[in-house]
Amino acid sequence: MAKHKKHPAYDDGDDEDRHYKKTLRDLQIELVKLQRELIANGSKILLILEGRDAAGKDGAIKRIIDHMSPRDTRVHAPGKPSDREETQWYFQRFVPFLPSGGEFVIFNRSWYNRSGVEQVMGFCTKKQLEIFYKSVVPFEDMLVRDGMEIRKYYLDISRDEQKKRLAERDESPLTRWKISPVDAKAQKMWREYSKARDETFERTDHPSAPWRIVKTDVKKIARLEIIRDFLSSFDYKGQNRKLTRPDRDIVFFFTPDGKKRLAR
Hints:
Blueprint (H helix, E strand, L loop, with lengths): L13 H28 L2 E8 L5 H9 L7 E4 L6 H4 L17 E5 L5 H8 L4 H20 L2 E9 L2 H13 L9 H4 L5 H15 L6 E5 L3 H14 L18 E3 L2 H5 L4
Parallel strand pairs: 1-3, 1-4, 2-3, 4-5
Antiparallel strand pairs: 5-6
Helix pairs in contact: 1-9, 2-9, 4-8
């Protein structure tokens, strides 16, 4: 895997850390500007974050919502479906958590659990998986036609970095709660997850809701670039376009070239 382009401003020195914190704060101010306009316009925004275990979803979400309106911002992290939910239309369990007018909702994992962990771990049948693939694009198209803005991000981490982060999680009493039986198999089933990821991109990338891929081996870079790219996808009053210009070496759309840049 190619190494990240060097970003000295995001290294661990005191000056660099101050630069990171200042840039993050400036980007969070932009998020507040954007949200004020979204609320005024009654916009419905859904941000989907997917990725392997330890790719940095929780850390990115924390920085995104830090200063956003708690009344108009929600985070949904789907849990294991109940026995009742198992009998429902697959998307039914997600619909109640979709944004209404003026709301900004983040899905920390989403319906793509089906083509990811459910497929890899054998939690769904091949028939259920195929129905999902045939349904998800029309479902997202329907949401977009109804006025919802969907942004889908996949946080891509290298195998070595994931191994390091999972070990750090297990060693710390503050993060040990994140470890699950599924996490324990993440490294052993690396190839299976890679195959599922690639198939998901191939079959669910579409103009209404394209996939954006983020290289996440350097957490600070990834957090800033997710926010930059998200902001750059909107036009809003007072936007600092220079600040919100994403680094396309770090965050990029799924394309034939983008596919070649995925962690293997």
